[in-house]
Amino acid sequence: MSCLHQSEKDINKRLFDKGQENLQLEAKILPLRNRVIELEEEVEGTKAKMEERATQQEVQFGRVEGKLTEKVEQFNKTEAKLMEDVVDAYEAGFEDALAQVAYVHPELDISPSAVSKRVVDG
To answer: CA 25 to CA 19: how far, in whole Å?
Structure first.
């Protein structure tokens, strides 16, 4: 019986030692678990900040795109206005030139002459 009693003591000692070892490991793991939780919270915070920044960038991009669209429209209007001015100046210059030809050569019939007409084959 003493052999059984000794065996039981050995088993209890081993269980106690394993329990102590387990407690030591838990003591080491607990700070790591806490750090993991902290890092997960930090990740969530960073993710929220990144999403907010992305939203701000999209809003800013929309503003820039709107301004660019306005500038393109203004440019197109300005370009069209300049083309009209060039055509008007060309027509006025042509009419002035015809008037000068008529003044210098009153015998010529310049009525068939116009800005939009083209001489083909003489």
So the answer is: 10
**pLDDT at residue 44 tops 80:** yes
Q: Band of the pLDDT at 1, cuts 50, 70, 90?
A: low
The answer to whether residue 85 scores a pLDDT higher than 90 is: yes
What's the distance, CA 45 to chain centroid? 23
pLDDT value of residue 90: 92
Per-residue burial over 63-96, b if 16 or more Cβ lie within 10 Å, else e, is eeeeeeeeeeeeeeeeeeeeeeeeeeeeeeeeee
DSSP per-residue string spanning 3-70? HHHHHHHHHHHHHHHHHHHHHHHHHHHHHHHHHHHHHHHHHHHHHHHHHHHHHHHHHHHHHHHHHHHH
Structure tokens at 4: 């059984």
Query: Which residues have C-beta within 8 Å of that of residue 115, sequence separation ≥ 6?
Result: 90, 91, 94, 95
> In degrees, to the nearest 5, what angle opens at C-alpha 43 toward C-alphas 39 and 49?
145
